[in-house]
Amino acid sequence: MSGVNEAVKRVLAFSLIAGLIAIATISIWVPVFIYRPIPLLRPNASAWGLPAAQEVTIPSGAGNRLFGWWLHPPNPAAPVALIVHGRSGNISTRAQIAAKLSADGFGVLLFDFRGYGRSTGRSDEKSLTEDAMAAYDWLRRQGVRADQIIVIGQSLGDAPAAQLSASRAVRALVLVSPFTNLPEAISDRLTWPALRLLPWPVNRFEVRRSVENLSVPVLLIASHSDGLVPFKNSQEVALSARDLHWLVIDGQRHDGLLAAVASTGRLSKALRSLSSAAPQLRSSRRRPEPRS
């Protein structure tokens, strides 16, 4: 019996040590669960309901090539949406969003991060921002003015979208399911007190820090029913925005949030408002309450 007890103790001790090591190094191994790329087997945009889209390749860091679809604006002065998508799928899973925006008079650039779809390379925290900036620079080379570009970040794409907007001139920034940074969002979601004490030097995906440096309009699209990003975490992002706008879609889950707000035309309406509004700086730290 004593031998069995000793074996149980050793198993428990090993499990405890392994668990502590896993928790202590969470910021290092968490990328295994972050990126969920899917190959793009049919690159022809027509197969995804975008017959007018042009296939493009965009050079990015370390000699990589990003694959994307470019929907020209109906007139040279029309706003252009640069969609920085989230952690899963590829541009085909956002095709209907692009189709609706195009039908409503916007230019649209959809691109895949490294390792997604037909883009070469492998994604990490740094490369996501590099790829978003490469897509922006490509638009500028096509003659699109900076004040035409509205950057739309979706979920994990919020971080590179916000960092891009903080370092390049843009018309406005849209954040879908916005979060302050990955450690805080996970802590708010899981509510484990110990998570807030863990070292997290990499894979932080900072959003709030970038938003603090913006003077352009920032639209936050969120849902109380998101299920992945806690709404209170999105509200923390709002506290950092100088020119804040809200669009709350209650009853919508995380993965379908951007598609839902696009399909109803509410996204296009919000983008038109952002395009026509003059950027403003607010000295007050008070923020308007979100409305649905």
Describe, in plain words, how this protein is organized in 3D.
The protein has one domain: Alpha/Beta hydrolase fold, catalytic domain (Rossmann fold). Residues 280-287 have low confidence and may be disordered. The relative contact order is 0.12. Strands 2-3-6-4-7-8-9-10 form an eight-stranded mixed beta sheet, with helices on both faces. The protein has a two-stranded parallel sheet with strand order 1-5. By secondary structure, it is an alpha/beta fold. The N and C termini lie far apart (63 Å). The chain has eleven helices and ten strands. Helix 5 crosses helix 6 (158-167). The chain has helices at residues 2-24, 26-29, 31-34, 95-103, 125-141, 158-167, 182-190, 208-211, 231-238, 257-263, 266-276; strands at residues 36-37, 54-59, 65-71, 80-84, 88-89, 107-111, 149-154, 172-176, 218-222, 244-248. The longest helix has 23 residues, at 2-24.
List the helices and strands and how they pair.
Layout: H1 2-24, H2 26-29, H3 31-34, E1 36-37, E2 54-59, E3 65-71, E4 80-84, E5 88-89, H4 95-103, E6 107-111, H5 125-141, E7 149-154, H6 158-167, E8 172-176, H7 182-190, H8 208-211, E9 218-222, H9 231-238, E10 244-248, H10 257-263, H11 266-276
Parallel strand pairs: 1-5, 4-6, 4-7, 7-8, 8-9, 9-10
Antiparallel strand pairs: 2-3, 3-6
